[in-house]
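Q: Given only this backbone (99 positions), what sequence would you predict?
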């Protein structure tokens, strides 16, 4: 995700929640199909998949927290890089005037 997307997610958390919900459900469906293929009853297969993936609310909170932390980390990294490059540009301009 881009920094802009992460920042927008802070404002539009419901969209991120929908994306996480869809991802979570796709994993549950896939695991349920695998369990059924292995011989489990459909209800038991779904329950097993839900137990293996854990608490959905906790998972969603972790994803949002991680996404936010990565966005902030990326912002500071980009800012440091911009300042570092700007420093060299200014130094280069100073030395080129001396020659």
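A: Predicted residues:
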């Amino acid at each position: 995700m881009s920094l802009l997307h992460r920042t927008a997610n802070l404002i539009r958390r419901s969209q991120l929640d929908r994306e996480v919900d869809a991802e979570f459900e796709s994993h549950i469906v896939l695991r349920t199909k695998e369990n059924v293929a292995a011989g489990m009853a459909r209800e038991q297969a779904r329950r097993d998949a839900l137990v293996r993936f854990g608490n959905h609310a906790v998972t969603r909170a972790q994803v949002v927290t991680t996404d936010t932390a990565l966005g902030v980390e990326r912002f500071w990294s980009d800012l440091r890089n911009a300042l570092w490059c700007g420093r060299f540009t200014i130094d280069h301009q100073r030395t080129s005037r001396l020659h």
